[in-house]
Amino acid sequence: MKFKEHTAIITGGAMGIGAKTAEKFLNEGAKVVLIDINEKTLDETLARLSTYNEKIFTIPADVTDRAAVKHVVKTTLEQWDTIDILINNAGITADTQLLKMTEEDWDRVVDVNLKGVFTMTQQVAEVMKEQQSGVILNASSVVAHYGNFGQTNYAATKAGVIGMTKTWAKELGRYNIRVNAVAPGFIKTAMTDKVPAHILEEMKERSPLKTFGYPEDIANAYAFLASEEARFITGTVLNVDGGVVI
User: Fold this and answer.
1) Cβ contacts of residue 4 below 8 Å, gap of 6+?
2) Which terminus of the chain has fewer CB atoms gathered within 10 Å of its CB, N or C?
3) Residue 170: its pLDDT value, please?
4) Where are the domains of the chain?
5) What positions does the domain Ketoreductase occupy (predicted)?
6) Beta bridge partners of 82
7) Residue 27 phi/psi, 5° resolution?
8) Does domain 7-240 have CATH number 3.40.50.720?
9) CA atoms of 141 and 155, how far apart (whole Å)
């Protein structure tokens, strides 16, 4: 087991990529703390993973709320003493074209996708510094590389995540903390199920592999980067996109 006796905090863990990542890490022996603002869905995910009851607990929390984040860190340490892995998976969209985008659309996405990642990482990095070890993984996106129509706010935040990842890798490496990002491409989730079929087909055709990714593909990437197999990898962005960014 890759993560026996390791503790991982996963934000945005109630569904999709976050929930699949929790399952992957639990299967590899980790103890997992799932964070999400959606308490009902969080409870449903916990019920689905009930066979791991002694190795998982959930905390409903808003990653943009510093007091809530401090509570997450405090509770995790009280339960399991260490925080070995942080996966900043939480993120939202509020898509609209530049000329129609409201200030609220901009602020909401920036708050979760940038401030949330900053706040979680700042609090957890203090713990990892004391431990002299840790892995921080951030969710970026392929749109950080090439932009996307109607996603000024989202693309800006995901490009910002890459900038923070590289900066933190330089700052925290001296404490034996590795920091990397994963940039998913078109991943089949409940969110994409709402997209019209012809749009989905166009998205699929943009990949040289002519297929979608699935949440487990991202979970596998997180697991690799968090493991000792990636001990000499930091400050990088791993595109998991079927070749969309080439």
Assistant:
1) 28, 29, 30
2) C
3) 98
4) 7-240
5) 6-185
6) none
7) -60, -30
8) yes
9) 8
* Active-site entry in 154, 175, 214, 222: 154
The residues of the chain scoring below 50 in pLDDT are none
| Tokens 């939480």 belong to residue | 90
- pLDDT for position 198: 82
CB 83 within 8 A of CB 72: no
Q: Which two tokens stand for residue 60?
A: 């409903």
Number of Cβ atoms within 10 Å of the Cβ of 79: 11
> What is the Cα–Cα distance from 90 to 17, expressed in whole angstroms?
9
Active site residue 175: no
Grouping H, G, I as helix, E, B as strand and the rest as coil, residue 53 is helix
**Host H or E run for residue 240:** strand 237-240
Amino acid in position 199: I
* DSSP category for residue 188: -
Q: Where are the alpha helices (DSSP H) in 99-237?
A: 103-110, 116-131, 143-146, 152-172, 197-205, 215-226
Q: Please give the pLDDT value at position 166.
A: 98
pLDDT of res. 201: 85
Contact 113, 154 (CB under 8 A): yes
Give the pLDDT confidence score for residue 84 in this predicted structure.
98
What is the C-alpha to C-alpha distance for residues 26 and 6, in angstroms, rounded to an integer?
Answer: 10
CA-to-CA dists, residue 115 to 17, 119, 191, 242, angstroms: 20, 6, 23, 29
- What are the distances in angstroms from CA 30 to CA 46, 55, 73, 86? 15, 7, 17, 12
pLDDT in tens, 184-198: 999 988 767 767 788
